[in-house]
């Protein structure tokens, strides 16, 4: 590949590399392919992020269930199933993935299965209603989450083999930023163009659009040039899983990271309770949904590239600042609710609160992903990702019980508790060892 190649020129412009073939911790055979792989991974990751937003269990699916007349119990199951379903099976799945010298096929399979699940959700939304529709979509959400888990456990491994340190945060930040712009466009449509009381066809179109994005992402991801990797740990899944769990005992840095990531769930669990407050003001129509989507889109498009660059310099600092920001906005939201401030009843003001929370959540997600990839080696990366995700899946299911507090004391009280948890997480994260290499 010539230095004058347009792909390398664009890669130089985005990353600031003086030589597109400089590698830090990827196989030497992947050096010349790094610019190509950077953009292929960027495109596929962008498609999957847009698809995830079009089928969001925090925003889109709850409104869909409202249209369908599904029981409130099922609405409460959406986020825990969506998140834990991705994380819990990964420890065993990683053992099978380790048998494969080339692992991009696992990501492609997960993306195709995700597309199928969303397409069937659209069919269910169009043909069913009430509890039957709700339970059918919940069942398909289980399949969807497991499929996304295949993508999650394989994506970081492929990324670690194809894109070097100090470039990964930039890559993920760019994809999240562009996806945020797409989400912003969706919110603007729902807020200003769509009928606030539009029918179910809008949600069917969103789900089918997500399915199409996953299929396009699978097609793009197939273009990655991946070098064969280590296959140790590809034997018996249970035995390998138990061996991998041992990393929590033997690797102190990894153990502290898992504890920190568990504490950072205070940020991840907060958005649904902000949505509950917003729904009380909007009545659940599309205008209220549109404002939250707009806020979420702006948060991603404005903050993700900045978090990405900070993550390349210090993923630890990115996580800590993001958690502190989430804690501060949570305390402010609780104070406004406790004082019955008229600001909280203003849809635009509330969208501003959600915007800041979205910025913080983006920083936490990107920072902890970069930190784990940089901390691990090519031999331990897949196992660490699987162990971390499995532990977090269990913790998340337990954390979902905080909704009981909301039933008794209201969403604002839950936001207060989670804000205090986020501030604790920020302090704990700063105790982690620095692993990033400034670019």
UniProtKB/TrEMBL annotation:
According to the record, the segments passing through the membrane are 60-81, 106-126, 132-151, 171-194, 200-224, 258-277, 289-310, 317-337, 343-364, 385-405, 411-430
Q: Where is the Major facilitator superfamily (MFS) profile domain?
A: 206-439
UniProt keyword terms in alphabetical order: Membrane, Transmembrane, Transmembrane helix
Report the Pfam families cross-referenced here: MFS_1
Q: Which InterPro entries match?
A: MFS, MFS_dom, MFS_trans_sf, Sugar_transport-like
Instruction: Enumerate the PANTHER family for this protein.
Output: INTEGRAL MEMBRANE TRANSPORT PROTEIN-RELATED, MAJOR FACILITATOR SUPERFAMILY MFS_1
Q: What is this protein called?
A: MFS transporter
Q: Which organism is it from?
A: Marichromatium bheemlicum
Give the lineage: Bacteria, Pseudomonadati, Pseudomonadota, Gammaproteobacteria, Chromatiales
């Amino acid at each position: 590949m010539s230095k004058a190649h347009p792909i390398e020129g664009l890669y130089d412009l985005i990353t600031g590399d003086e030589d597109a073939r400089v590698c830090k911790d990827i196989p030497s055979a992947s050096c010349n392919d790094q610019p190509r792989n950077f953009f292929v991974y960027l495109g596929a990751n962008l498609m999957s992020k847009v698809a995830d937003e079009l089928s969001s269990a925090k925003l889109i699916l709850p409104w869909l269930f409202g249209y369908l007349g599904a029981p409130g119990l099922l609405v409460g199951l959406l986020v825990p199933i969506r998140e834990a379903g991705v994380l819990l099976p990964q420890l065993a799945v990683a053992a099978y993935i380790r048998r494969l010298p080339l692992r991009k096929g696992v990501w492609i399979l997960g993306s195709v299965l995700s597309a199928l699940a969303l397409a069937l959700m659209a069919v269910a939304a169009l043909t069913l209603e009430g509890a039957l529709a709700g339970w059918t979509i919940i069942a398909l959400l289980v399949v969807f989450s497991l499929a996304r888990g295949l993508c999650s456990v394989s994506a970081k491994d492929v990324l670690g083999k194809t894109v070097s340190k100090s470039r990964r945060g930039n890559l993920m930040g760019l994809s999240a930023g562009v996806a945020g712009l797409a989400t912003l466009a969706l919110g603007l449509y729902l807020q200003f163009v769509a009928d606030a009381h539009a029918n179910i066809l809008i949600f069917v179109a969103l789900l089918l659009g997500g399915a199409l994005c996953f299929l396009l992402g699978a097609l793009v991801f197939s273009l990655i040039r991946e070098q064969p990797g280590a296959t140790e740990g590809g034997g018996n899944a249970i035995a390998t899983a138990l061996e991998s769990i041992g990393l929590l005992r033997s690797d102190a840095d990894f153990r502290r990271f898992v504890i920190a990531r568990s504490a950072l769930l205070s940020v991840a669990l907060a958005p649904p309770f902000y949505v509950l407050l917003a729904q009380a003001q909007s009545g659940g129509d599309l205008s209220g949904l549109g404002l939250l989507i707009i806020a979420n889109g702006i948060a991603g498009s404005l903050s993700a590239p900045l978090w990405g660059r900070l993550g390349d310099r210090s993923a630890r600092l990115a996580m800590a600042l993001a958690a502190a920001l989430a804690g501060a906005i949570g305390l402010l939201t609780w104070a406004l609710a406790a004082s019955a401030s008229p600001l909280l009843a203003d849809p635009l003001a509330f969208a501003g609160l959600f915007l800041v929370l979205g910025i913080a959540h983006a920083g936490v997600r990107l920072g902890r992903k970069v930190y784990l990839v940089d901390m691990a080696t090519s031999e331990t990366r897949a196992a660490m990702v699987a162990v971390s995700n499995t532990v977090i899946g269990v913790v998340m299911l337990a954390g979902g019980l905080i909704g009981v507090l909301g039933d008794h004391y209201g969403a604002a009280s839950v936001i207060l508790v989670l804000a205090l948890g986020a501030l604790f997480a920020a302090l704990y994260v700063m105790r982690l060892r620095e692993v990033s290499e400034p670019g």
